[in-house]
Design brief:
Layout (H helix, E strand, L loop, with lengths): L6 E4 L7 H10 L6 E5 L1 H11 L4 E4 L12 E6 L16 H16 L5 E4 L4 H6 L8 H9 L5 E6 L17 E4 L6 H7 L2 H17 L7 E5 L14 H15 L3 E6 L1 H4 L2 H4 L4 E4 L2 H12 L3 E6 L5 E3 L17 H23 L1
Parallel strand pairs: 1-2, 1-5, 2-4, 3-4, 5-12, 7-10, 8-9, 8-10
Antiparallel strand pairs: 6-7, 6-11, 11-12
Length: 349
């Protein structure tokens, strides 16, 4: 990782709000030392539609060209077909994935310090000829050739390394054991091995990327009331409790499983650095209630820094200039901090 290299922003689904929230940040002077990956003509058209005046310059990885106030540097990728706000087109699925591949390659080859992703639309990518696509997180895992990654979302107040532990209702870090799975498949995916691998990665990157030297993790049960001693499901007794016991024997400060409906309360969160939820909506519904639009998504376990927004493509808002760019701004600021913290951790080791 080249800590002095620029940060990258991939503009995501071209029919969504990704291109315009990127342009909004650029117009506000928030994209210094960054590069945007996307279709230059699309960005120019969307800027004109929104009345934003930016000088756009195309460049290539390693050129040294970076954005500055009112000057947007773009590493170009070509749309397969013209894109219109709010109108999905599966023909552009490969374009979206190309922007991600450019970003990954640049990070791995030292041409970029980190990548920040605007939202994409999973359904249109599947319809565009990629039936096994399940999301950014899993795609990045495979693109980087790692066995396991962790999806962690954090509200803005929890993103600073200095404020490590829970301070209030808007201060949350939530990681997931399973990510983009149908609910009926979740129980089978919650295994002893999965829990131990995710927990180790979470503890390691809370230390290396957030500077939390002795992280304390609270774990949700899978079933209501954490299984009620086996009366409401045996996953806690047979899988989760043995996994957490083994992790504690390794030295991790990890508690649970706790009933998810009470874990997210002040008494249980006091002194906790992160919550590990068993499935997507169990953890993220609470986090987004606490800080939607003020949070960012981080992929742990990669050989690069990747952050993202906490929202979707918002097709109904695209092209109207009413989308809120704040989550992308939070993700960008977080990427800057994580690259510095990660570099410091590497030096210390």
């Amino acid at each position: 990782m080249n800590n002095s290299a620029p940060l990258l922003i991939t503009t995501g689904e071209p029919a969504g709000i990704g291109p315009e929230i990127t342009l909004m940040l650029a117009a506000n002077g928030q994209l210094n030392n960054t590069v945007v990956i996307g279709d230059t003509e699309l960005l120019s058209q969307r800027a004109a539609l929104l009345g934003l005046h930016l000088d756009m310059v195309e460049a290539t990885p390693g050129s040294g060209e970076v954005s500055s106030p009112k000057r947007l540097v773009v590493w170009p990728a070509a749309l397969r077909e013209p894109a219109h706000p709010g109108m999905l087109n599966p023909a552009n699925a490969s374009y979206v994935l190309e922007t991600l591949q450019i970003a990954v390659d640049a990070c791995l080859h030292g041409h970029a310090a980190a990548m920040v992703t605007a939202p994409l639309h999973k359904g249109v990518i599947i319809e565009g000829g990629f039936p096994r696509f399940t999301g950014h997180t899993e795609w990045l895992r495979d693109a980087c050739g790692v066995d396991e990654v962790v999806m962690l979302l954090a509200t803005d107040q929890a993103l600073h390394a200095q404020s490590s532990r829970w301070q209030g209702s808007s201060d949350l870090r939530v990681a997931l054991v399973t990510t983009h799975l149908p609910l009926r498949d979740v129980a089978d995916a919650v295994t002893h091995d999965k829990i131990t691998r995710i927990s180790r990665l979470l503890a390691t990157d809370l230390k290396n990327q957030f500077g939390i030297m002795a992280p304390r993790i609270a774990v949700c049960g899978l079933n209501p009331h954490a299984g009620e001693d086996g009366h409401l499901g045996r996953e806690e007794l047979d899988v989760i409790i043995p996994a957490l016991k083994a992790l504690r024997a390794e030295g991790l400060d990890i508690q649970g499983p706790l009933p998810a409906d009470t874990l997210f309360t002040p008494r249980h969160l006091a002194g906790v650095d992160a919550v590990l939820a068993m499935y997507h909506d169990q953890g993220l519904a609470v986090l987004k209630y606490a800080g939607f639009g003020q949070a960012a998504n981080i992929t742990l376990g990669l050989p690069l820094v990747r952050t993202s927004v906490d929202h979707g493509t918002a097709l109904s808002l695209a092209g109207h200039g009413t989308a809120d760019p704040n989550s992308l701004g939070v993700a960008l600021a977080l990427a800057r901090r994580l690259t510095t913290q990660r570099a410091n951790a590497l030096v210390a080791s």
